Amino acid sequence: AWLPEVFCGNRIRVFGKLFLFSEGSNPGQFDAKSYYNRQGMYADISALRVTVLEEEQDVVSNAVRSFKQRFRESLLSLYPQEKAGVLNAMILGDKDLLTEDVEELYQRNSISHILAVSGLHISMLCMGLFRFLRKLTVPLKTASALSICFLIFYIFLAGVSTSSLRAGIMYLV
User: Fold this and answer.
1) Residues paired with 14 in a beta bridge
2) What span, in angstroms and rounded, lies between the C-alpha atoms of 21 and 125?
3) pTM of the predicted model, to two decimals?
4) What number of CA atoms fall less than 13 Å from residue 63's CA on the CB side?
């Protein structure tokens, strides 16, 4: 089926098949229903036809989405799939490129937290930028403002997760 190009901010109508998320039936098994319900999603849809009703766009969201896509494509062109997936998860918190084997390996060795954007990532990036700017003799207030702007951009880039918001607030403090 042909699907139109859809942008953040568009109002769309979707026709397709609706699927309810499955519950984990074994102890320790991933429970998709609980996971997605906590995020406010209650079903998945396989789109057969999409119609754009209003073409209004959210410029900021589209810019972030476009940057993420270009970053992802750059990683895939520079590294093999496995390494690109790990780097993409570490830098952007996006686990879409991770293979099941790699994700399971990180979980089995209790280091899967490395793949989530955390306070460590945010503080290293923002303080690194701040200190770099100060070494270039950028005034304190300007370096602070630029690192805060980068912080806000990075939080949006990482998907505005609870952990990245908390880390951003702690960085500001």
Assistant:
1) 50
2) 36
3) 0.66
4) 6
